[in-house]
Specification:
Blueprint (H helix, E strand, L loop, with lengths): L1 H7 L1 H6 L4 H38 L2 E2 L6 E2 L14
Antiparallel strand pairs: 1-2
């Protein structure tokens, strides 16, 4: 909603010198928030990669509701036969 308001009133906001400090503060706040979200996303991605590696090492294929264990000697990237 904030971005919509800024887009609609962009010319008035930019023309106002009184709003410059508010915009600078908003910019800094948004950058801090975005940095936190990027960090959180990075941690979540790393965690999912770890879980995936553990599942592959333990012989479980896929992330679906059904976990299909690999047969001994089967390739890790093989697909189960559907009859």
């Amino acid at each position: 909603m904030l971005t919509s308001l800024i887009r609609v009133h962009h010319s008035q906001i930019v023309a106002s010198r009184k709003l410059r400090p508010v915009l600078d503060e908003l910019k800094a706040s948004l950058r801090r928030s975005l940095a936190r979200e990027r960090e959180l996303t990075g941690w979540n991605t790393a965690g999912l990669g770890y879980v995936r590696r553990e599942l592959v090492e333990n012989g479980v294929v896929g992330f679906g509701a059904e976990e299909i264990p690999l047969e001994k000697g089967a390739k890790k990237r093989s697909f189960p036969a559907i009859a």
